[in-house]
Amino acid sequence: MSSESSSELHVVMFPWFAFGHISPFVQLSNKLSLHGVRISFLSAPGNIARIKSSLLATPTTQIISLPIPAVEGLPPGHNSTAETTPAMAGLLKKALDLMQPQIKTILEDLKPHFVFFDLLQHWLPKLASQIGIKTISYTVFSATSTSYLTVPARISEEGESPSIGDLMKPPNGYPSTSITSVKAFQARDFSIVYKSFDGGPTIYDRAVGSRLGCTAMLLKSCQEMEGPYVDFIRTQFKKPVLLTGPLVPDPPSGVLDEKWANWLGRFPAKSVIFCSFGSETFLNHDQIKELVLGLELTGLPFFLVLNFPAELDSQTELNQALPSGFLERVKGRGVLHTGWVQQQLILAHSSVGCFVCHSGFSSLIEALVNDCQLAMLPLKGDQFLNTKLIAGDLKAGVEINRRDEDGYFGKDDICEAVKAVMLDVDKEPGKSMRENHKKWREFLLNAQIQNKYIAELIEELKAMA
């Protein structure tokens, strides 16, 4: 396709049914469609309205609804992991595997140049190759976590899965970076990647199978931030590894809700702690108690967002988790909210000086492009490794201290981390963190660099098509 324009490229997007996966596929679709690439976006019926609200509407973009096959135990209408318990998320994977006939029919009809697919559809490369369509395994996780967890070096020559002890150390051949080990409680969390449920393929099997079978891999990353990890992935999979760049979100449209704008506007610049853990990362009651007491201990105003699994009542959970008298003691300087908030607009508010978060990669990028410091409390999976990238390699934030064996953190751990980035600004390590945050903010906001990554990606796709 070297002599043809990118408008003749047609890409099908097929993410896993979790909004943490769907959003990066939407972001990339928008970047590509601005360069004239035709996009066909596949998802379950219940996700379409939300996708439509963020996917750029162009004459060359369409959304195709995928009915979820019936699976015993999976209630009708469950279209994303936000609506399911962990057990039901496993059933949703079974439903995904049953979609192969309808996916084949759609691809035969559309005849795209490429299918960009997620890590769980390990069967897609073979299916697509049978009808002459190339596949791009698009990894929405950081290269840091991908290189640590889902590379062939993680499985022994005898085919044995890694032990907890193995997972506390990087795989053989890992680059020399700040990541030399992880804590025992984190390694135990990682072990779920290598476990089979109901005899089905493990997450590791799906992810590595997807990458070994595809035409090329695509990472939501850039050489400047994750170069050593990108290079290690290239050596592990021995195939083209393309990069999107860090996919900086567009500036948010609209204005902050008047209720929150008025509340935040009462406080001095850079004085408020914003604390949120996304829509699918949850704290238990003991963790909530120590978190809120730690925020109280800082003496600073705070805006805390807490969410709970879909099957639980949020108000009941809060009543059980919050310490006695807490709400009365922080009245006027502390806000507790459950549900969705305008995170980008809150992070951009002049009074917000610190973001305490779970280290989801998209949230970290949103924080880095705003002038608010990072105190990270990762709770599962890739979040632990994302934190090490930001705190260890880039030195642009602080990790909240936790006990090695069980991950316990107390109110003092919360308070000390926040003070390091918000109050001790002329002491180390806070001083260097602010300087590094500023450096990476300038890099991420450089539109020329971002556009260069997308333009190069399109040229590489045209050469492969």
UniProtKB/TrEMBL annotation:
Question: In terms of domain of life, where is this protein from?
Answer: Eukaryota
- Reactions that this protein is recorded to catalyse: an anthocyanidin + UDP-alpha-D-glucose + H(+) = an anthocyanidin 3-O-beta-D-glucoside + UDP
Q: Does Glycosyltransferase appear among the keywords?
A: yes
Q: Which InterPro entries match?
A: UDP-glycosyltransf_plant, UDP_glucos_trans, UDP_glycos_trans_CS
UniProt xrefs under Pfam families: UDPGT
Pathway participation? Pigment biosynthesis; anthocyanin biosynthesis
Tell me the GO BP annotations in alphabetical order. Answer: anthocyanin-containing compound biosynthetic process
The Enzyme Commission number assigned here is 2.4.1.-
Q: Which UniProt keywords apply?
A: Glycosyltransferase, Transferase
Q: Which GO terms describe its molecular function?
A: anthocyanidin 3-O-glucosyltransferase activity
Tell me its family: Belongs to the UDP-glycosyltransferase family.
Q: Under which name does UniProt file this protein?
A: Glycosyltransferase
| Originating species | Populus alba (White poplar)
Q: List the top taxonomic levels of the source.
A: Eukaryota, Viridiplantae, Streptophyta, Embryophyta, Tracheophyta
